[in-house]
Structures are given as structure tokens and as C-alpha cells.
Write a structure and sequence with these properties.
- By secondary structure, the chain is mainly beta.
- The longest helix has 9 residues.
- The chain is built from three helices and nine strands; from the N terminus they run αββββββββααβ.
- The radius of gyration is 17 Å and the shape is globular.
């Protein structure tokens, strides 16, 4: 883990963040086209995450819990959309990621892009641009796969 702010969480507070996919936006003709990216063989997977708990410096009684998704370089599928992507862990790696006994070099080896052959992506409606929209329409393909 390169960033000093995350070093301690990387050692002691790793987590799995469940997901069924994620979005990226492709710039085309002055507009941004959203794409939904998911795995081919499963409806649910996990991002590599870190969590933290800290006290609000302005109110010592307030405990704040937060998490972050670790990113890595994009694979061939995501690269036309963005230069980074979330680290997607495969099921056999979940236990290693969560175990405090896993050596840091093995953990670091997990922080790689998932092969694009295991993923698929398609353009979706700009409805995803608003958090007010929470419907199946947000992941429905517009008209073609990439």
C-alpha cells in the first residue's frame, strides 16, 4: 500500500465490499456515456476494501466509521473508459485478504486488475447520473456490448 494514510488499515482493517457491478463514464462527443461493468459468471462479487474508525476532532464523542475501495490499473476492458478500476477479489482470495496472518507481499499480489476475459460491460441510461434513480433501468443495456 503506497499511501501512508492507508498503511495501518492495510495491515489490520481489510474488508470485502460486496457488489454486483460498477459504473464508469466514457467521454464521447462532449458528453459522458455511463457504462455498467460486471462479471460474466457471477451476480455477486467483492471489491478489496479497507475500513477505519476514528473520533471526530471537533466532537470527541462522535465515532466515525468509513471504508474505501482499493483501485488498481485498468484491464483491457475498462481502459477505454478509465485508467483505474476497483480491485475485484475472486472467492478463493477472500480468506487470504481478510486474514491477519497473510504476509503483506501476498496481499499486495492480490491488488491487480481482474482479467478482462472474466468481465463484461455495456452502455446504460444516463439515469445512473442521479442517486434519486434506483431501478433496474440503471443497469439495463442500451443497445450493444463492448
Amino acid at each position: 500500500m503506497k499511501k501512508p494514510a492507508f498503511r495501518n488499515a492495510f495491515r489490520y482493517r481489510r474488508c470485502l465490499i460486496p457488489a454486483c457491478g460498477f459504473y464508469e463514464w466514457q467521454k464521447r462527443d462532449g458528453k459522458k456515456q455511463p457504462w455498467f461493468i460486471t462479471l460474466k459468471e457471477t451476480d455477486l462479487f467483492a471489491f478489496a476494501g479497507l475500513w477505519e474508525r476514528w473520533k471526530n476532532p471537533e466532537d470527541e464523542t462522535e465515532v466515525i466509521e468509513s471504508c474505501t475501495i482499493i483501485t488498481t490499473d485498468s484491464n483491457e476492458l475498462v481502459r477505454p473508459l478509465h485508467d483505474r478500476m476497483p480491485v475485484i477479489l475472486e472467492r478463493p482470495d477472500y480468506e487470504s485478504w481478510l486474514s491477519r496472518q497473510t504476509p503483506e507481499r501476498e496481499l499486495a499480489a492480490l491488488l491487480r486488475p481482474l482479467p478482462s476475459s472474466k468481465m463484461t460491460a455495456w452502455p446504460v441510461s444516463p439515469l445512473v447520473n442521479s442517486p434519486a434513480n434506483d431501478s433496474p433501468e440503471c443497469v439495463r443495456p442500451l443497445n450493444y456490448h463492448f
